[in-house]
């Protein structure tokens, strides 16, 4: 029984099953009082893909030529609240969404949207990372915000950030 539990924990740590699946498998073994249900349940559980659901846009990161001009435009025209202005970049908050205006133009010098960050419902960092890797999306870990988030490329090459409700 100890080896079975060790195998289940290993699958969980490697991202082959979610926390919920681990608890379900352990509960089946505990209440059934036998090892076979655990052994037969593990492969089916680990094959189930994680279903992620975006619940809102956390922020858009604009790479701009003049962040102050962009800041003043959005604050004046649309009444966005200026936050975290450090002289090089700032946030422009409206509702649950923020535009981050940064003076970091593209290599070609043209302003663009650097990335879009989506908040994922029921955030589970390890499960999200495992699912992104399982899909071959090569997630890049970002530890620069309030929580760890992951950057991936969408099919058109745009930078997409997935984050928790605590934001980045």
Question: How does this model look, in words?
Answer:
The protein has helices spanning 2-13, 19-32, 36-47, 67-78, 125-134; strands at 54-63, 81-83, 89-94, 97-102, 112-120, 140-142, 149-153, 159-163. With 168 residues, it is an alpha+beta fold. The protein folds into 2 domains: 2-47, no CATH class; 54-163, 2,3-Dihydroxybiphenyl 1,2-Dioxygenase, domain 1 (Roll). It has an 8-stranded mixed sheet. Strand 6 and strand 7 form a beta hairpin. 23% of the residues are buried.
Write the layout of secondary structure elements.
Layout: H1 2-13, H2 19-32, H3 36-47, E1 54-63, H4 67-78, E2 81-83, E3 89-94, E4 97-102, E5 112-120, H5 125-134, E6 140-142, E7 149-153, E8 159-163
Parallel strand pairs: 1-4, 5-8
Antiparallel strand pairs: 1-5, 2-3, 3-4, 6-7, 7-8
Helix pairs in contact: 1-2, 2-3
In short:
The chain is α+β, with helices and mostly antiparallel strands and 168 residues long. Helix content is 36%, strand content 28%. α1 packs antiparallel against α2 and α2 runs antiparallel to α3.
Secondary structural class:
alpha+beta
Spell the H/E element sequence: HHHEHEEEEHEEE
What would the CATH topology of the largest domain be?
A: 2,3-Dihydroxybiphenyl 1,2-Dioxygenase, domain 1
What spatial form do the alpha-carbon principal axes imply? elongated
Strand order of the largest sheet: 2-3-4-1-5-8-7-6
Query: How many discrete domains?
Result: 2
Strand content: 25-35%
The biggest beta sheet reads: 8 strands, mixed
Ends distance: 41 Å
* Low-confidence region ranges: 30-46
Overall mean pLDDT: 78
Q: What is the CATH top level name of the largest domain?
A: Alpha Beta
Radius of gyration: 21 Å
Q: CATH superfamily membership of the largest domain, which one? A: 2,3-Dihydroxybiphenyl 1,2-Dioxygenase, domain 1
CATH architectural name of the largest domain = Roll
Helix content: 25-40%
| Count of alpha/pi helices | 5
């Amino acid at each position: 029984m100890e080896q079975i539990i060790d195998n289940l924990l290993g699958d969980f740590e490697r991202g082959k099953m979610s926390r919920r699946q681990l608890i379900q498998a352990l509960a089946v073994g505990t209440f059934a009082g036998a090892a076979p249900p655990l052994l037969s349940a593990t492969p089916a559980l680990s094959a189930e893909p994680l279903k992620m659901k975006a619940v809102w846009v956390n922020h858009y990161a604009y790479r701009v030529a003049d962040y102050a001009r962009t800041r003043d435009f959005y604050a004046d025209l649309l009444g966005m609240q200026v936050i975290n202005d450090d002289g090089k970049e700032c946030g422009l908050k409206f509702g649950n969404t923020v535009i981050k205006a940064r003076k970091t133009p593209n290599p070609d010098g043209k302003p663009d949207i650097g990335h879009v960050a989506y908040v994922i419902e029921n955030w589970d960092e390890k499960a999200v990372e495992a699912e992104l890797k399982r899909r071959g999306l090569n997630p890049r870990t970002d530890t620069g915000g309030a929580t760890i988030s992951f950057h991936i490329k969408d099919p058109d090459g745009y930078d997409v950030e997935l984050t928790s409700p605590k934001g980045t």
